[in-house]
Amino acid sequence: MPVKGILSFPGDKSISHRALMLASLSNGVCTVRNLSTGADVESTRQCLLRCGVNSERKDGKVVIKGGALGTPESPLQCGNSGTTARLLTGLLAGKGICSTLTGDSSLSKRPMRRIIDPLSTMGALINSEDGHLPINLKSNSLTGIDYTLPVASAQVKSAVLLAGLSAEGKTTVREQTKSRDHTEIMLGHLGADISVSGSRIDLSPLTSPLRSFDLTVPADPSTAAFFAAGAALVPGSEILLKRILRNSTRSGFFDALEKMGAGMEWLEESDEGGETTADLRVWSAPLRSVSLSQPEIPGIIDELPVLAVLATQAEGITEVRDADELRLKESDRIAAICSNLLRMGADVTELDDGFVIEGPTTLKGTRIDTYGDHRIAMAFTIAGLLADGQTKLDDDLCVEVSCPEFNDLLGKVIK
Ligand code: S3P
User: Fold this and answer.
1) 372, 399 in Cβ contact below 8 A?
2) Would you say residue 415 has pLDDT above 90?
3) Share of the chain above pLDDT 70, in %
4) Radius of gyration of the chain from Cα atoms?
5) pLDDT > 90: what percent of the chain?
6) Which of 407, 397, 337 has its CA nearest to residue 80?
7) How far is the CA of 264 from the centre of ligand 1 (A)?
8) Is the pLDDT score of 261 beyond 90?
């Protein structure tokens, strides 16, 4: 059945986390509209509430009272959210706030050494379970650092920058491959002394609170990607996705979709809090394969599961390399993509750092193991639109991590 219609989405997950955290450093009342409705962002809001940052969700907006970040009385539950755990550790370490951060079983397996190392060099006193959650933070004052990121990670970069806001002296972060830059954009927009020059970011500590703000979060391009993929894949489809975040550090999926031959156009660009938004029209067309490696990977990292689904329908060999970070996400996404696609009958080879897929192949419906991973669930729901026979996910609910309304939205556009 074709995918047709006009869709609006809740706000981008990455920007939503940052908006809540930076509101806590502001001098007044902040309003965030179109905040992500996912459980991950709610984890951030709940953690901040425990730290004394009051907020209220009402009529599609969240109002946050800045200036009250303090010591929580109980552990901070980060749920499934790596962004909550890593960014909050940086923010709290900078402020010298004693706290314990915990996560669910997936998050507790994910590497935290990548933030513990630079934050400890800055002076943070951090105990962890061998580089994993739970993390225990003790109070200490921090000093700015000149840090070259060993992995392309916006979470690590942001943890260091958030700590640097409250450190003594300047902080410099150098990236070997550019990762999403929402922290830099938002900090600049709210009056912090931050400058970006090529791959180098320089930040001075805050001398006064950030200014309070009223922000409408642009729609999440990582959620929009699933609908764009559905429209590109199913013959006779055409969809209009409204007010999508258009940021070059996040556009890898849409760039790849265009290279693969999908019908695509961006319309009605505008500015929102220093970020660009635009409407995106996507329509079906015959697809060809694409190859991706560094430095393209960080800009498409969260969309690689759905890119793999596209690749099964594209003429030729799609190769994704240098994506070893995918093994460290909410699940081992390389293994999850390859095992599920193989079971659907795709021609797929698993690599240590990616995968090779030869298309086109007819997919057959089967049972999908989501590993509780929202992006695997959504990618294979899209694969199910093309499959012969029924596709059944072992866990429908995990989509709530980033987009609880995913299945309702899909129901609206399948005609
Ligand atoms: C995010 C950064 C990325 C991404 C994650 C959100 C962020 O993770 O995969 O979904 O908001 O900074 P890494 O920084 O680990 O690459």
Assistant:
1) no
2) no
3) 100
4) 21
5) 98
6) 397
7) 26
8) yes
Delimit the domains of the chain by residue range.
13-202, 218-413
Cβ atoms of residues 75 and 103 within 8 Å = no
What is the model's pTM? Answer: 0.98
What's the pLDDT band for 264 if we cut at 50, 70, 90?
very high
| Distance, CA of 410 to CA of 234 (rounded, Å) | 13
Distance, CA of 326 to CA of 320 (rounded, Å): 11
Residue 154 DSSP one-character state: H
The pocket around ligand 1, CB under 6 angstroms, is made up of 14, 17, 83, 153-155, 158, 180, 301-302, 325
- Ligand 1 centre distance from Cα of residue 153 (Å): 6
How many residues in the chain? 415
Give the count of alpha carbons within 13 A of 104, CB side only: 15
Catalytic residues: 302
The two three-digit tokens of residue 329, written as one number? 């996400």
Domains 13-202 and 218-413 share a fold: yes
With the most atoms of ligand 1 within 8 angstroms of its CB, the residue from 153, 217, 326 to mutate is 153
**Of ligand 1's atoms, which has the minimum distance to the CA of residue 154?**
14
Domain 218-413 sits in CATH at 3.65.10.10
Testing ligand 1's pocket by substitution, the residue of 44, 180, 185, 378 carrying the most ligand atoms inside 8 A of its CB is 180
**How big, in percent rounded to 5, are the helix, strand and coil portions of the chain?**
35, 30, 35
What are the tokens at 403? 């987009």
Could you tell me the fold of the domain covering 13-202? UDP-n-acetylglucosamine1-carboxyvinyl-transferase; Chain (3.65.10)
Q: Which residues pair with 127 in a beta bridge?
A: 136
b/e map of 13-37 (b: 16 or more CB within 10 Å)? bbbbbbbbbbbbbbeebbbbebbbb
Distance between Cα 155 and ligand 1 center (Å): 5
- Residue 331 CA, ligand 1 centroid: distance in Å: 14
The atom number, within ligand 1, closest to the CA of 151 reads 16
Nearest to 70 by CA among 87, 95, 93: 95
